[in-house]
Amino acid sequence: MKNWIPILLILLTLSSCKTRNAAKNHSGNPQDSTVVVDDNRTPKDANEPVRDKLSFYEHVVVPLKFEQVKINSKVNVETGSFIPTLDAVIYIENDKKVWMNLQALFFNVAKGIATPEGIKGQDKTSKTYIDSDFDYLNKLLNVNFIDYKSLEKILMGRTFVKISDSQFTLTQNAQGFKMVSNTNQKIVTDEKTREYKIVLNYDTNYDLLSVNLKDVLSTDELEISYSNWNEYSGIRLPKNVKIIIKGSKSSQILLENTKFDFSRMETAYSVPSSYKKIEIK
To answer: Where do transmembrane segments lie in this chain (predicted)?
Structure first.
């Protein structure tokens, strides 16, 4: 099972229910809370209330428009055991699938695909494979809300948790915007209900810088940060993604995206008959 931990951790970062529109993500009518911004006002270092909330929500909750993107990445996984730097080719078709191929020292070591129905992956070194839903990935991240679309958003640097004006406090300073949940955010699934304290930070141009989710009833914590944002074919994407998982065991994943390509590619996936299925429990 140890071989699958790094591979599945990578898979969950490579993939991120249908995109909610701005009205569904933003509870209430954003017009109701809008106040005209004083253009002469200069944000101070101390956080202060945001007057033009409508512009903020329009930037951070509008779905990203793209058909597909191919990403070449360097992947470093830290779990307490030595894992070499992996070269990854990640291909995302919006709302449909995330396909990946992993290499170490120029040898193919793993391949996987995520769809709204679940995940599939194969480890070529051990000749084993998995076919599962997203429950196991949630357990690896110490959360309970990850589905396909949220994983796709994680990879693309988009807000992947539900935010609302009524349950979050939005402030601004010279560095950008900050959202802090003013009530514990309850996320209910078939398996359990968990409560999180959530903090999100954005740059002055609305690029997502970090998301921190802390389980209020345990030591479980998830932090995802983004840096080196650039524009590619009219879409802003982060070159660096860091995922830190804290709990009874801690680990982190570092993605260095070196190239973005928006052309379509073939994504074959099949499991050799000689491979043994791993049951995830």
So the answer is: none
